[in-house]
Amino acid sequence: MAGRLLRLLFAVLVGIAAAATISGQVAVAVAGDVPAAGASQRIDAIKTRGTLSVAVLGEAPWLIENTSGSGEPFSGPSWLLANEYARRLGVKLKTVPVSHETKIPILATGQVDVTIAPLSITPEREKVVDFVVYSKSSICLIGRGSDPKLKDVKSVDDLDKPDLTLAFFVGTPVELWAKKRLPKMRLRGVSGTGAGAPIEELLSRRANLVPLDSSKWPEIRKAVPGLTVFPSDYLASQEMSTPVGHAVHKGDPEFLEWLRDVAVEMQPQVTADEMRVINGK
């Protein structure tokens, strides 16, 4: 495993094959090469059956379900990466629909090899499954561009004022985050689905700010003109930043390291595809 990590680092830095010394002889390999037969039970099983089974559940901007009835069933960076797994293994990709409640437990049943439904990586989840990181989620704070209280604000730090109100959906993690991150700000919990953001609280002037998934800002900006965002470089936001990745069942380190190798090699393409989705292209 250590040899592979070294080869991966070398490949990322110089973009060529690396040499690993084995029993006094030099063996040349490229990071992301499929492990030899016998090294991974999971990979052997996948190649034998001819399919890579993946758990799917659409969630923008990572995995977008195609409801048109034609073409690929999904698109987005998670789908791009999953297809690369299958291509390198020389097998077909098989999708298995899951719910939010089953996208992790299904790995333990052996019905899927990888959950490509986007998953935020938390310490609790890491106790149960292993992850392949390819993205992150974060939030930004949006307000009315005409709000005089936001006129001189340059950063999220500047928002920690007692005369500003943040509205959020009750039952979401934002409340705990805001109490620690912006302790002087007034908090206003409102009922709702938890999807999107309580924009009506801004428009009615009951709140100065609302939280929003950073990747959704371009969509909201088009739908509701006249809003402003903090931080201004919303995609670089580190507020409530959480890694996002694919999940695999624990117990097959060779499979896990191979998936991670592929993800690192594919990162430029994966990131570019995520930006395509975010920008609505």
Give me the number of helical elements: 9
pLDDT < 50 stretches: 1-29
Secondary-structure arrangement, i.e. CATH architecture of the largest domain: 3-Layer(aba) Sandwich
Helix content: 25-40%
Q: Kindly report how far apart the N and C termini lie.
A: 39 Å
**Computed CA radius of gyration, to the nearest angstrom:** 22 Å
Main features:
alpha/beta, D-Maltodextrin-Binding Protein, domain 2, 3 domains, five-stranded mixed β-sheet, three-stranded antiparallel β-sheet, 9 helices, 32% helix, elongated
Model description:
- The protein is α/β, with parallel strands linked by helices and 281 residues long.
- It contains 9 helices and 14 strands.
- The protein has helices at residues 2-14, 41-49, 77-89, 105-109, 123-126, 174-181, 199-203, 217-223, 253-278; strands at residues 18-22, 25-29, 51-56, 64-65, 74-75, 92-97, 114-120, 129-137, 139-144, 165-169, 186-190, 210-213, 227-230, 242-249.
- The chain is elongated.
- The chain starts with a helix and ends with a helix.
- It folds into 3 domains: 1-33, no CATH class; 42-118 and 125-133 and 250-278, Periplasmic binding protein-like II (D-Maltodextrin-Binding Protein, domain 2), CATH 3.40.190.10; 139-236, Periplasmic binding protein-like II (D-Maltodextrin-Binding Protein, domain 2, 3-Layer(aba) Sandwich).
- It has a 5-stranded mixed β-sheet with strand order 6-3-7-14-8. Strands 12-9-13 form a 3-stranded antiparallel β-sheet.
